[in-house]
Design goal:
The chain is an all-alpha fold and 91 residues long. It is built from five helices and no strands. The chain has one domain (6-81). The chain is 54% helix and 0% strand. 7% of the residues are buried.
Length: 91
């Protein structure tokens, strides 16, 4: 699963905002799985914890620079939510 795909990432960020500070990875994952069990069944709180940049002591959720870069690359590849990939069977 590509967790950084924009429609999926929006759900993750919205859930983080609903959980609020302190950002508990287990609670975030539980809420995501409750909202959409099929899509988030393989996301684990250990994975999510790896994405968080804990060097920021404030009350805002910060993701590590490499995660922010991956998110921005996915958004650049798919402007306005449209896929840039074309099926091989398309004329």
């Amino acid at each position: 699963m590509n967790w950084f795909f924009p429609p999926i990432w929006v759900q993750i960020v919205n859930t983080c905002l609903r959980v609020g500070y302190p950002f508990d990875a287990k609670e975030i994952i539980q809420r995501l799985q409750a909202q959409n069990p099929t899509q988030f069944r393989t996301l684990r709180h250990q994975r999510f914890s790896e994405w968080i940049d804990r060097t920021h002591p404030d009350r805002y959720l910060h993701f590590k620079p490499e995660i922010q870069h991956r998110i921005s690359m996915k958004q650049a590849i798919q402007p306005a939510g449209h896929t840039s990939q074309v099926s091989i069977l398309v004329c």
